[in-house]
Design a protein that fits this description.
Blueprint: H1 2-15, H2 22-59, H3 68-79, H4 88-119, H5 129-159, H6 180-191, H7 200-205, H8 208-225, H9 232-262, H10 272-283, H11 285-288, H12 292-327
GO molecular function, one term: ATP transmembrane transporter activity
Membrane topology: Multi-pass membrane protein
InterPro entries: MCP_dom_sf, MCP_transmembrane, Mito/Peroxisomal_Carrier
């Protein structure tokens, strides 16, 4: 009887939502971070061609009005099918690091707020809307500052015009596209280290995107959990809905950030407000929403798969904890 009770206590400690000690909390934060990184990597790989189409439309204003299908056909004709995956290497690395950092800080902040709620004697330890937004703001700001250089490199690689578009002498080989490391070193060498933080201000403004997304997700999930246990399928639909609204609201700033990322050393170094006003003046409101079709589609699908994959991966981690706890008995 005592042995059975000990097993139950170990299992409860390994699967509790808010771990009771620092080591357990740290382990739980890392588990969420790894699940988020894995989910982000899988969802990014599935939807990357849509990212390419959206980024091209954002930074090439003269092509912003073309349809998604026409843009895809043009890229394939000019650069081959692999052109749709330009910069995939840096994107996979970037999304893994981004999601790991984000989810680690988000879970760390959330656990601190939940503990504060318990200490204050609040009936429910679930985060309020304001607390969810605070957790998202802290996690998002930390993520932007740490990962912005990765996304500058990725945007440069995704938006580059392939050398295959230019005339090549018969028998000669087109210039090879630069690698991720090559692009990174070229930016530092030609434009300076500070250029890796181009667009960091609009990126910080865009922290409102995950704040909206995760706040909506958390509140909808809390509402659903009052009735039944949520599943990865539920997370798929809730994540899609949250991302749809968040991306639609913040898209103009996504466009401004992409333009600032690709501004070369010879071009003007406009700040966020100047870039925003210039696009509005030269291209109108439609310029701020160039490529929104593929971007919203990609964002919604990616977010849906991300939340579904993350929940599935986290549940796998919980099962591994249970198995490990049972073996220790």
């Amino acid at each position: 009887m005592a042995e059975a009770k000990k097993i139950q206590e170990n299992l409860a400690q390994s699967t509790t939502t808010v771990p009771h000690n620092t080591a357990a909390q740290q382990s739980d934060n890392v588990a969420h971070a790894l699940a988020g990184a894995g989910g982000g990597l899988l969802s990014m790989a599935l939807t990357y061609p849509l990212i390419t189409l959206s980024t091209r439309a954002q930074v090439e204003s003269k092509r912003a009005q073309s349809s998604t299908l026409d843009a895809a056909r043009r890229i394939v004709q000019r650069e081959g099918f692999t052109g749709l995956y330009a910069g995939l290497e840096s994107a996979l690395f970037g999304i893994s690091v981004t999601n790991f950092v984000y989810y680690y800080w988000y879970e760390w902040t959330r656990s601190a707020l939940e503990k504060a709620a318990i200490k204050a004697g609040r009936a429910s330890k679930k985060l309020t809307t304001v607390e969810s937004m605070m957790a998202g703001a802290i996690a998002g700001s930390a993520t932007v500052l740490i990962t912005n250089p990765i996304w500058v490199v990725n945007t440069r690689m995704t938006a580059r015009k392939s050398d295959s578009k230019e005339a090549v002498l018969p028998g000669s080989t087109p210039a090879k596209s630069p690698s991720t490391i090559g692009t990174l070193l070229a930016i530092i060498r030609e434009e300076g280290f500070s250029r890796l933080f181009a667009g960091v201000v609009p990126a910080l403004v865009l922290v409102i995107n995950p704040i909206l997304q995760y706040t909506l997700f958390e509140q909808m999930k809390n509402f659903l959990e009052k009735r039944r246990r949520t599943t990865p399928t539920d997370s798929f639909y809730l994540g899609a809905l949250g991302k749809l609204l968040a991306t639609s609201i913040t898209y103009p700033y996504i466009t401004v950030k992409s333009r600032m990322h690709v501004a070369g050393k010879e071009g003007p170094k406009d700040n966020m407000i100047t870039s925003f006003n210039k696009i509005l003046k030269e291209e109108g409101w439609s310029g701020l929403y160039g490529g929104i079709g593929p971007k919203v589609t990609q964002s919604v699908i990616t977010a849906a798969f991300l939340f579904a994959f993350k929940d599935a991966l986290y549940n796998m981690t919980i099962k591994a904890r249970r198995a490990a706890a049972a073996k220790k008995i």
